[in-house]
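Posting for a labmate who doesn't have an account.
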Amino acid sequence: MISRRQMIGSTLATGATFVVPHTFAQATAWPERQVRIVLPFGVGGAADLLVRVLAERLQSRLGQTFIVDNVTGAGGNLGMQVVQKAAPDGYTMVAATVGTLSINQFLVSKLGYEPVKDFAYGSTFFENCNMLIVASQHPSKTLQEFVTWARKQPQGVKYGSPGVGTTPHLSSELFRARTGIPMLHIPFRGVAQSMPALLSGDTDFAIENVASYMSMIKAGKVRALAVTSKDRWPTLPDVPTMSEAGLPNFIITSWGAFVFPRGTPPAIADKLAAEIKAIAADPAVQQRFLDIGARIISSTPQQLTDLAESERVKWKEMVQLAAVKME
């Protein structure tokens, strides 16, 4: 005869065998309804355009709507906080960046979220680089010519950026440290304000995102002297890298990645990563990203975790170098 205790134990054990596969099935069946992609930056920027391309492709491949919700403010931190507080069910994710995952924690004393502990990492989805640019009327045609010219300016030189703590600002501070050129930083609210200052000669140079100035390069209004990527940028094959131009070990890239709230089932993050990998293999999507000014990339959740951690080491040093801190 089977005792009551044996029967309960048997029932629990049997139930457990059904619970685990059911949970796994739910995770791998994702998505079964609309997915919200929070973008911590404004409409119309490079990140916005790239995310919308991927939202279209994910919707086509997975059969559910992927909406892009622009939640701006505090250098991307507000959008991160929204997702931090969302249900960990796979139906809210954020298009994070190198800034929100690996830089802002060293800039802001009260960040409002923990980049490591508060999120489940999914996959990278883009990378791009910065480039040192001058207005087309500037006498310098190469990076070395610019360095020589800048060192002769009795008051030093001025550079603009889209804000304190941005990768253009920190990249420019690294350039100042490497060359010893006296420089004055003029922060603006964004590229829409910093670009006219460069074109008019109010600032002497900028180290800016490729995507932000590609149209200006094509129009002949600015000149790129060097790119900060390890290899030459695909859409700027005639522009040397910083190393080729005479400034070695100056490799700076920006990147974006999809992350979920902490506690999201790993199978969901794995499935998203697999989908991004498949989309990244499509030549048509590769070209769309290049046209916008970026390269489409993908990674596993672990590769993204490792990337974010290694980048924190580099950017922490650059923030300290720039001696900036924000409330």
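Reply:
Got it, the structure tokens are right above this. The longest strand covers residues 119-135.
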